[in-house]
Specification:
- The complex is a heterodimer of chains A (410) and B (134).
- Chain A is mainly alpha-helical and 410 residues long.
- Chain A is built from 16 helices and 4 strands.
- Chain A has 2 domains: 318 residues, Cytochrome Bc1 Complex, Chain C (Up-down Bundle), CATH 1.20.810.10; 80 residues, 2-Layer Sandwich (Alpha-Beta Plaits), CATH 3.30.70.20.
- Helix content of chain A is 57%, strand content 3%.
- In chain A, a hairpin with an 8-residue loop joins β2 and β3.
- The longest helix of chain A has 28 residues.
- Chain A starts with a helix and ends with a helix.
- Chain B is α/β, with parallel strands linked by helices and 134 residues long.
- Chain B is 23% helix and 17% strand.
- In chain B, strands 2-1-3-4 form a 4-stranded parallel sheet, with helices on both faces.
- Classes of the chains: A mainly alpha (410), B alpha/beta (134).
- At the A-B interface, α1, α15 and α16 of A face β2, α1 and α2 of B.
Amino acid sequence: MYRKFLRLTKSLTVSFEKLVNFLTTQEHNPLYFHGALPLYCFWLLIFSGILLWMYYIPTLDRAWSSVNYISALPTPGHPIDMAGGIPYGAVVRGIHRWGAAAMMIVTLLHMLRVYFTDRHRSWRWLPWITGVALLAFVLFVGLSGYLLVWDARAYFIVVASQHLLEALPGVGGFLSAFLVGGAGITDYSLTRFLFFHVGGATFIFFLVWMHFIRLKEPVVTPSRASNFLLMGFILLAAGTLPAINITHELLARYGTDPRIAAQAAYIASDAPAQIGHLVETIRYDAWYMFPYWLIQNLGVLWTWIILGGATVLLCVAPFYPKDRRANIAEVIEAKCTGCTFCSLDCPFEAITMVERAPGSKFKQIAVVQAARCSECGICVGACPFQAIELPELHSKTLEADLMALVKKGA
Amino acid sequence: MSEPKRTVIGFVCERSLPVERMLDAHKAMLDDPETKFVIVPCSGMVKPTLMEAALANGADATFVCGCAIGDCHYRTGNLMIRERLEGKRNPKLRKNTDRRKVGMFFVTMKDKEAFLEALAEFKAGLEPKPVPED
């Protein structure tokens, strides 16, 4: 039943991709580079983030105004003495903001593509599980980014997060204090949020390494056309609706301007946060703030149940259904010369080269790690010595099949 | 007089074309009985020596059919066989093999029509088979 579902999703995915191939050609279809797209977005976020970091001041009274300063709206009394803000600062902020949305979209696309084509199971469990961790960290880093602006919405998120953490029995109080760095929100809280954002992003590099460790030559570069397409979308969005801070005064003065109204509705940050003054509701960003929508609409308990349940489901997905696994590649010891071709070509790093005993005819021997083997036979194709075989499809069988076909035709 | 029949051997990845719906009981293609399939789990499993053996033992042409480039179920199988046949990865196709007789197609399971077109084009590029004297 579940297998049938996976076969159906695979078939639908291929049909959809055929449609996209019609538009982009097979060579430049972004769906064939789905894993490289999040990494590409990540680089964009790293570089735009470094530019924003140059001007950011993580204190309660200056965080909002330093971000506001970047957006090219001059703020009186700002410590960095440059008149007129940063040229195109709002656009760089826009790239960071829209790039983050693109990051979540392409990450989910990557995840769904892998799941729908049944490429998440069995020997691929490590890339999938680290992928779940990566998804969680993308969410965490994205949310911590919203805190740095320190507007009314950021304050709301901090308070809601503390409620969520305090609901945990035993450790709740500690985690809640850990989040803000003490009993209440102080300047140190902002420093901590900055660490969560930048440190979390750095940790993503470690997770990406884990994500790739069992993949031979992971695809890390999208096709040039996909690059330009994605970059074009992000730049277009950032140029049309750059990210700015919108105060009540600004809204009162320019609220009738359709562009300011669109910014206020979709991407702008709010007025500065005031500790103790909690807004009743916030504008939810569709890609990052759904946990807060859950908290406000369903309550803390259901939020934990939904988030926890989703995580558990994602983590057990690669282990069900189980395959037969009877066709794992076997090395024929007498024939293996230790030439390393199979180990170099194995797409899942399942073959390692091991030293033979001293005095042996050959120096090394290939060893298959059964749990990592995908039973694909690429190692059989790589071996010039017929020294590695799939038990259920021996290359002698293939040869016999071939000879039978050639003879019948003659 | 009808043209003498050719034998074309295809090494076909079971995940690329819908192979079970394309063959008769003798592994010949329903749409083109001259073409016969050896089915493999992944096109990367095919050795160039296997294709050389097909040509040496009476096949008039041979080809590999794998998943679309970028969509190999095992990630790199189609890239591997492509590089081997192009002479960029060991073990390579021998240099004295007639390149016109060795084809590669990379298609998804919904691309049967495109595959048939490419196969017809590949076969049209082969030299005409000499008519037996007697």
